[in-house]
Amino acid sequence: MLGAVTNVCSDKTGTLTQSKMVLTRFWMPKKGFYSISGLGFDIKGEVKSESDESTIPSNDIPPYLKQLAYNAALCNMSEIRKDKEGDGYHGIGDPTEVALQVFAYKLDMGKPKLLSTKGGPGWTLISEYPFDSSIKRMSVLCKNSEGEHIGFLKGATERVLERCVGIKTGDSVEYISQEQLNSMVLPQVDELARGGLRVLSLASRSVKVNGKVTAETFAREDIEQDMFFLGLVGIYDPPRVESKDAVIECHQAGITVHMLTGDHIATATAIAREVAILPSDYGLNLPPGKSDPRALVMSAQNFDRLTDAQVDALENLPLVVARCSPDTKVKMIEALHRRKKIAGMTGDGVNDSPSLKEADIGIAMGQAGSDVAKQAADIVLV
After folding, report:
1. Domain boundaries in the chain?
2. Within 10 Å of residue 146's Cβ, how many Cβ atoms?
3. Tens digit of pLDDT for each residue in 118-140?
């Protein structure tokens, strides 16, 4: 069966890419773009304004940047640990969250320090609302040393902005309309994503409480509303060295390769060009607002909106589908089956398991893959 495969559908993160993520740029309203040095799990790095080339001193972090660091560190379940040998560090947990945690460490505001009552700010984590692939966001409720309860939210930009009522810069907040927020933020998302960066949005709000608060006091919906947008972070996940050669070999064997990813459409397009899933000139040098007439890339929102008959009427199925949910990936496999294609699916995450099971051949990543993905797959790569 494996030798008869006509189409391979692949997740991006951890499959086509190394899953060695590092936060390299961020953007904040009224402040602009910043770059951060330091690769991998290196907890030392300089934060530099791209507008005036000034460096932010690590011993004097401004309030607006502290808010971003609090979110990066606290709305985060990963850990950074020192290697047993040498001076290096390693991350435990989701690679995206590890990249955010390393960013907080570079500002000397890693999670352990923020939670410490000895020399630290003494934050307390009250409750966590874990990442949900159907809504593409997660949140936490925390309490600071002054007793104020703060909700922190992070996730896909469109799913964060829809929960926001304004922007926050340092200690000041400004209410703005959803339309104003979108027009302010979305062009900056495109700027980050065009560089192949994975883009997340961060937001927070003060939560009013009455009496004692426990993990069960608030439902998720109670926390994830009336938020104030803090900023965007851009995380780079370099493609695996072998990915491009593998895709080219598939093409030479007559196998079509599709990328199905939860990332922003511009990020997915940039990485797909790098690994030869898309032509190297796809989407480049187009007039503003114009899309490539070859129509090889589609958002999951548009793909999911199509009926089976409309999908079947497409001359070719898209090579890249961005902002995928697990159901989107299954829909693509089903569309290939209706075209009498033999579909292989590669993936490593829990979210890939439904499509791994649906495909003719489900292939899980052996080293970095989740146990759920391995159990759903027919083949586990060692």
Report:
1. 2-16+239-380, 22-236
2. 7
3. 767 789 999 999 998 889 999 99
**What architecture is the 22-236 domain classified under in CATH?**
3-Layer(aba) Sandwich (3.40)
Helices (H) and strands (E) in the chain, counts: 13, 20
Residues paired with 173 in a beta bridge: 168
User: Of 11, 263, 348, 352, which is the active-site residue?
Assistant: 11
CA 141-145-148 angle, 5° bins: 50
Residues in the chain: 382
Is the backbone of residue 264 left (phi > 0), alpha (psi -120 to 50) or beta? beta
Written as one letter, the residue type at 207 is: V
d(C-alpha 289, C-alpha 342), whole Å: 36
CATH of domain 2-16+239-380: 3.40.50.1000
Query: Which residues touch 294 (CB under 8 Å, ≥6 apart)?
Result: 279, 282
Rounded CA separation 188/177 (Å): 18
Instruction: Note if 360 is an active site residue.
Output: no
Residue 83 CB coordination number (10 Å): 10
Pairing status of strand 227-236 against strand 164-169: parallel
Backbone φ and ψ for 57, nearest 5 degrees, come out as -65, 135
Token output for 69: 């660091």
pLDDT digits (tens, 9 = 90+) for 218-263: 999 999 999 999 999 999 988 988 999 999 999 999 999 999 998 8
322's CB contacts (< 8 A; 6+ apart) are 261, 262, 263, 264, 265, 267, 268, 269, 297, 298, 299, 300
